[in-house]
């Protein structure tokens, strides 16, 4: 009998359903421009924190802001612009 494959998204949704929306970490692989990563690492050093934690905070704020507005795209664009300005300023 063949074992049915379950997608990673379905597994994550099942875990959330079982355990609720408590904070647990998942590993993801993504490609980010080198200059952005460098700027994030510099920002994290200034704050004495880790750059991955900083990435998580920026993404969390963008997602929360996005869910609070009627115009998700506008909110996301403005948050991205703010984050980009922060990154650009910190890398100078």
Short description:
This protein is mainly α and 92 residues long.
Describe this structure in words.
- With 92 residues, this protein is mainly alpha-helical.
- It has helices spanning 8-19, 34-46, 51-68, 72-90.
- Helix 2 packs across helix 3.
- The longest helix is centred in the C-terminal third of the chain and has 19 residues, at 72-90.
- The radius of gyration is 17 Å and the shape is elongated.
- The N and C termini lie far apart (60 Å).
Order of secondary-structure elements: HHHH
Number of helices: 4
Instruction: Give the CA-CA distance, first to last residue.
Output: 60 Å
Number of strands: 0
Main sheet summary: none
Using the alpha-carbon principal axes, give the shape: elongated
DSSP helix fraction: 55-70%
- Strand-pairing-aware structural class: mainly alpha
Strand proportion, as a percent range, falls in under 5%
Instruction: Round the Cα radius of gyration to an integer and report it.
Output: 17 Å
Low-confidence stretches: none
pLDDT average, as an integer? 80
Keywords for this structure?
92 residues; mainly alpha; 67% helix; 0% strand
Secondary-structure blueprint of this entry?
Blueprint: H1 8-19, H2 34-46, H3 51-68, H4 72-90
